[in-house]
Design a protein that fits this description.
Layout (H helix, E strand, L loop, with lengths): L9 E7 L6 H14 L4 E7 H8 L6 H15 L6 E5 L5 H12 L2 H5 L2 H9 L8 H4 L1 H10 L5 E4 L4 H17 L12 E4 L27 H9 L20 H9 L2 H12 L5 H27 L2 H29 L16
Parallel strand pairs: 1-2, 2-3, 4-5
Helix pairs in contact: 3-13, 3-14, 4-8, 4-14, 8-9, 10-13, 11-13
Length: 349
Amino acid sequence: MPSPSHPRKRVLSGMRSTGKLHLGNFVGALDNWVRMQDQYECFFFVADWHALTTDYADTSKVKENSVEVLLDWLAAGLDPERSTMFIQSHVPQHAELHLLFSMVTPLGWLERVPTYKEQRENITEKDLGTYGFLGYPVLQAADILIYKGDFVPVGEDQVPHVELTREIARRFNQFYNLKGKAVFPEPQPLLTPAAKLPGTDGRKMSKSYGNTVMLTDPEPVVRQKLKTMVTDPARIRRTDPGNPDVCPVGDLHKIFSSQETMAKVNAGCRSAGIGCIECKGWAADALVNILNPMQQRRKKYEDNPRLAWDILEAGSAKARKVADATMEEVRDAMHMSLDYEPGNPQGKR
């Protein structure tokens, strides 16, 4: 257990408020967050402002989607007694720090972010020629640094985003300081294991591809989705041997199935001793065993959504206190304190 002299390191992460989550969200982040709760001081936020970077044209579902994200967090095992969960837009200090960071962040830094060009090319149905989309890494830096996070849990592909946050912190500290001391620490990426999780069509699981298994899918829906899932393309006939290492269903087994089931899959598939339908049924069994307890926990909050909203409100209040303390330091360092007093050499009342 941490002691006052050795407090827990602080972790900060968030998810965009795009509604109910799928298995890819669980495997890629949420499952790791749940395991972090006892080791770190965790701040997890619903990133509703970030959702606007691509979905600004219709904001009618933002609040509803935010609650849906929280319900899936609680269902997966995030605990308000062990983690601070809040809504980004309910902590306006994020926006103030974003504004101040935007004054010192070179444009070239934003244009070189790997996902900027990639998403501009791939999301062609929306106009992404906005400052909000270009500048979202600056808001992301504010999200992290306002809590002086020690670590940001990310997959390897997200490390450049954390490095940009470190560069923004470094640049701010070069311009401004508190009596010679840096205002912001430089957070480190906390690389989290991210297993390969395919969607039902074999591509990366994504809502935009329509190939997801949702955390809220009831058992009949899960089983039906897996029945249509693509398999090893070389296994055309029932009598053809297959290879679980190149089969999307095999990838599901590696993540969710027991060693005993994996042994049966490996032996049966490679020898054509089992068919794909049987193999998919075993994968569905494993998923249902994971999802059923989560859905039962979720129902408690679905039946009383006020409980979930109260958790977000309480978390947002706690987050505002931490963020406000940081912003006082930022304003002092920039000689923009709200307590400024003319004629006082120290500048403050």
